[in-house]
Amino acid sequence: MLPEKILQSAADFVRERFAHDSSGHDWQHISRVRQMAVKLAAEEGADLYVTELAALMHDVDDWKLTPGASAEHADKTPETRRFLQSIAVPQPVIDQVCDIITRLSFKGAGVATPMHSLEGQCVQDADRLDAIGAIGIARAFAYGGAKGRQMIDDTVEPEMHGSFESYKKNKGPTVNHFYEKLLLLKDRINTESAKRIANERHEFMQLFLQQLSAECRGIH
Ligand code: ADP
Ligand code: NI
């Protein structure tokens, strides 16, 4: 199959696979990550085909989302492999894509898995950019709502939102996720192209948090 056809088949597969997701990994997330990853890849001189394919497939084997899957499972990307083999993607491309996805999905589990390839760095940056800025704010509150979490914990002072103790104690009202993770992402970006975007989105989140805090305290 031609690369364009492969990308089309992968897009169709993933659109169908995530059609009913409401955990923040819906098709629109995949679609934004795909678009951003390709844009970054073009600017950075990465291979566009591998980048786009990896971006499309990046959440298919997320063990947090797959019933029965686990972080300890030996092959971290069984479904991705199966699908790419079924549409006859060349084995070296499958290996590249699966390596990227394996490294991507363990970022949050406390295991540092360096992203060596430029293509992987573009996909990782695109995924991280989708967790910050206006879209990141929307996703965080959508996720928190889906998990039955409070938006803002009114038992703690605004300054306490950043403390890990308050986070654990209160099982994490969504606003704490900004301090625990989202505000840290701009310093974990790989590529220069993505850093510029991350800085803007970071400032926007800070502005949002200031305004949120002011409104909650009855100042504005
Ligand atoms: P990824 O898409 O990189 O795999 P995650 O699965 O960790 O990211 O999270 C998906 C979305 O849900 C992201 O936008 C993330 O910020 C948000 N999210 C994850 N954990 C929390 C949380 N505890 N509170 C609020 N939002 C969260
Ligand atoms: Ni993702």
UniProtKB/TrEMBL annotation:
PANTHER family: HD_PDEASE DOMAIN-CONTAINING PROTEIN, SUPERFAMILY HYDROLASE, PUTATIVE (AFU_ORTHOLOGUE AFUA_1G03035)-RELATED. The keyword Hydrolase applies. InterPro entries: HD/PDEase_dom, HD_domain. It holds the Pfam family HD. It comes from Pirellula staleyi (strain ATCC 27377 / DSM 6068 / ICPB 4128) (Pirella staleyi). Keywords: Hydrolase. The keyword Cell membrane does not apply. Coiled coil: none annotated. Residues 22-141 form the HD/PDEase domain. This is Metal dependent phosphohydrolase. GO terms for molecular function: hydrolase activity.
